[in-house]
Design a protein that fits this description.
CATH architecture of the largest domain: Alpha-Beta Complex
CATH class of the largest domain: Alpha Beta
Strand content: 15-25%
Number of strands: 15
CATH topology of the largest domain: Fumarylacetoacetate hydrolase, domain 2
Radius of gyration: 21 Å
Number of helices: 9
Oligomer: single chain
Shape: elongated
Largest sheet: 9 strands, mixed
CATH superfamily of the largest domain: Fumarylacetoacetase-like, C-terminal domain
Length: 284
């Protein structure tokens, strides 16, 4: 199930992609006897609530969408699919951590980078200080991002005045559709309602000093993040989220082609070997 949110005047409504195109969820619900009107309104306007609805309700809505002419969809502007209540950004890939550290040294510490480059060329091994702290190998590590600064596709991102090294990270966002507290891995997985594409913007020159302080990222990352306008339900992505490929284009030129393979912690939080590149998470 692919979902998006549309604003027409003062009205916000959810649309899903049926067999022929985008249709309003409200029109799908109008063909069903259940749920009750107040519940139907919530499902028709709140993507996270829809992702958390019982499976049979979502299946019925999707079936109804196949019978509705997409030309009846209301006109309006696509907006951010939901406003996150929390944002936790995990680093699950060893190679991403090492590559980011190497990039820091190359850009901000050119003298030290010559030592790193010589060591790696002579030994064929990663410079030890570039590897994550030992705690990273024992438990999932994340930082709490600013959930109030999310943009979506097409919105302008203003470069902060305190940086000359603005960077991006292509990430996969897990959208939680159920509340959680001290869950088991099975409970946590069951709470995943959908997925979005994320972009974690970073001021790398500012981040260097912040990371050296031992307190983690602060102003270097909290100024802006972004998510896709479309949310894909977990049934389409969860079974294969370790086997996805992505790409990044800047001005029409492909500059990166990452994969979700080889996370440090796999399904059910079982440690696996790491090689791949990107970081993951979102929460609503």
């Amino acid at each position: 199930m692919k979902l998006r949110r549309v604003k027409a005047g003062d009205d916000l409504h959810v649309e899903l992609f049926g067999s022929q195109g985008w249709v309003e969820v409200a029109k799908c619900l109008a063909q069903l006897k259940q749920p009750r009107p107040e519940e139907a309104h919530t499902l028709a306007t709140d993507i996270v609530a829809l992702l958390g609805a019982p499976a049979d309700v979502r299946a019925a809505i999707l079936d109804a969408a196949r019978e509705i002419d997409p030309e009846t969809a209301a006109e309006g502007a696509l907006v951010i699919p939901f406003e996150p209540r929390s944002f936790r950004d995990f680093m699950l890939y060893e190679s991403h951590a090492i590559a980011a550290a190497r990039g820091f040294v190359r850009m901000q510490m050119p003298g030290a980078f010559q030592v790193v480059r010589a060591y790696e060329a002579l030994t064929g091994r990663t410079f030890p200080k570039l590897k994550p702290h030992e705690l990273w190998y024992r438990q999932p590590i994340y930082y709490m991002g600013n959930h109030l600064t999310f943009a979506t596709d097409g919105e302008a991102i203003v470069m902060p005045s305190n940086t000359t090294a603005l960077d991006y990270e292509l990430e996969l966002g897990f959208v939680l559709a159920q509340p959680l507290r001290d869950p088991s891995p099975e409970m946590a997985e069951a709470a995943i309602g959908g997925f979005v594409v994320l972009n974690d913007f970073s001021a790398r020159d500012v981040q260097l000093a912040e990371m050296a302080s031992g307190f983690g990222p602060q102003k270097s990352k909290h100024f802006r993040s972004a998510m896709s306008k479309v949310v894909v339900s977990s049934d389409e992505i969860l079974p294969r989220w370790h086997d996805l490929n992505g790409f990044v284009q800047l001005n029409g030129v492909t500059v990166a082609e990452p994969s979700t393979a080889d996370t440090l912690f796999g399904p059910r939080s079982q440690p696996v070997k790491t090689r791949a590149r990107f970081a993951i998470f979102v929460w609503s």
